[in-house]
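Appendix B. One record, verbatim.
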Amino acid sequence: MQENYEGLREQAKAELEFHHSKLQDKPFSNRAKTIGKFNTDKAVYGLDQPMPELNRTADPRWAAKHAEHGKPFRPSHPPRADQISKSIGRFPGWVGEPPKEITKKEPADPDAPKKFKPTHNSKTVPCTSVVANLRNLRAAYPSVFRK
């Protein structure tokens, strides 16, 4: 008896069509869907009703305060009578500064030894965690870590 040459292929195709007929239109997604809030923000705060119009022009609290012009200038903190340089008034005249004479200091004893200057041996010490890091030790001492 002859066997159908394309039989396995046709059987697989029929099973795949049956499988696709049972699938939904959209694949399954386990992501939570956002459906929004139960109430809008306006409804929660009571703003969904129309608000009455504010008549700010009739309210004296909202009236514009106009500046009064024509008054002379008066400082807010006037100086006392003995203080001259605290207001827009008389100031002392300019007095020039005398030039500074620059002179070189001579040592008291020319035969005395020179002044002591400390050395710069106390430089900063590197951090222990950086110095003792295995990678840094291998780079600094490759012969010790040779295999």
